[in-house]
């Protein structure tokens, strides 16, 4: 019998490969075009909620990339209190398979991939939906994905002003310091949501609320602004959509799937304020050139992304190909 081997890639293995910001953004943008052209298969996400007193839950994402020859499953935990244990709030594993044979190809540390593909989705959305001359970024949240949001957005826009805030001063201060060192420019720490978001050209809400709270109000959205809300628990005022000219999602089915408690715009969905008729497009349709992105400098645009399994697989597949070419990782006998 033929021995079946699979490659294990740890976080350190991935770091050694020299993957760049541009590599990650390109992988995500490319697979979004595949979405628009119906060249992917992906299943609805599911949630596993352990009996753990509300400490956290798991998201299970599944998909297959038709043109790239890879299928896979990601399991990612979302445990908001992990900072108290010195752990990331989101830790993930991605299993990759050959779609022709079902053979396991790799087990990949998906923690950095989850954070980076989320930031890349924010950056790609901004590329098509924000004003080209956007100069001010306001960012709420300092968790892992927040880092990649700011870094990858700045790689596209080279902002003149970056403002950040988070619930805890002990997280936002070092977050800003790390960003300033990485980006080579000042990063302003603000104490409130209003100071951070009001009047910004690009607004990103990546908060970690435990109960819905209308902290993000429509008054923050000036003409020409672009908003990305994706906190697990909604922080958006119910009337915020009244002032939004164009709403784009990553996938309309995914917007409605899973536990109705989770998702930045789930209260708006549940109240009938967000409907399919209100959606301008899915981001893949825009990237593929099937629908327009921003059409007017005065438009207030909103991009809600919940996370597509296919973006995880695109980045993981790119990393696997590079690991195979450089013989990086640990080969494990499957059978």
Automatic annotation (TrEMBL):
The keyword Transmembrane does not apply. Signal peptide: none annotated. It comes from the Bacteria. It is an enzyme of class 4 (lyase). One of its GO terms (molecular function) is ornithine cyclodeaminase activity. Keywords: Lyase. This is Ornithine cyclodeaminase. It comes from Kutzneria kofuensis.
């Amino acid at each position: 019998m033929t021995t079946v081997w699979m490659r294990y890639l740890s976080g350190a293995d991935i770091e050694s490969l020299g993957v760049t910001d541009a590599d990650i953004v390109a992988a995500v943008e490319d697979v979004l075009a595949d979405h628009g052209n119906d060249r992917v298969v992906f299943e609805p996400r599911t949630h596993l909620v352990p009996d753990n007193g509300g400490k956290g839950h798991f998201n299970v994402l599944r998909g297959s990339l038709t043109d790239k020859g890879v299928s896979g499953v990601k399991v990612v935990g979302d445990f908001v209190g992990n900072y108290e244990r010195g752990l990331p709030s989101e830790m993930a594993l991605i299993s990759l398979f050959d779609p022709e044979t079902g053979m396991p190809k790799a087990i990949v540390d998906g923690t950095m991939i989850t954070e980076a593909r989320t930031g890349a989705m924010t950056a790609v959305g901004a590329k098509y939906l924000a004003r080209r001359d956007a100069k001010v970024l306001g960012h709420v949240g300092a968790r892992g994905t927040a880092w990649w949001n700011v870094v990858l957005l700045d790689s596209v826009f080279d902002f003149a002003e970056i403002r950040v805030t988070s619930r805890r001063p002990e997280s936002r201060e070092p977050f800003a310091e790390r960003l300033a060192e990485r980006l080579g420019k000042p990063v302003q720490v603000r104490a409130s949501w209003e100071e951070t978001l009001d009047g910004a050209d690009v607004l990103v809400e990546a908060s970690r609320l435990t109960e819905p709270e209308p902290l993000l109000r429509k008054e923050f959205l000036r003409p020409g602004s672009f908003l990305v809300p994706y906190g697990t628990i909604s922080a958006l005022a119910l009337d915020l959509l009244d002032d939004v000219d164009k709403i784009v999602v990553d996938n309309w089915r995914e917007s409605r799937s899973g536990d109705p408690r989770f998702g930045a715009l789930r209260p708006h969905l549940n109240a009938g304020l967000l409907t399919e008729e209100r959606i301008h497009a899915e981001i893949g349709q825009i990237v593929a050139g099937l629908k327009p992105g921003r059409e007017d400098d005065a438009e207030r645009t909103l991009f809600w992304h919940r996370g597509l399994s296919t973006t995880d697989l695109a980045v993981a597949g790119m990393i696997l190909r590079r690991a195979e070419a450089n013989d990086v990782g640990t080969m494990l006998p499957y059978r």
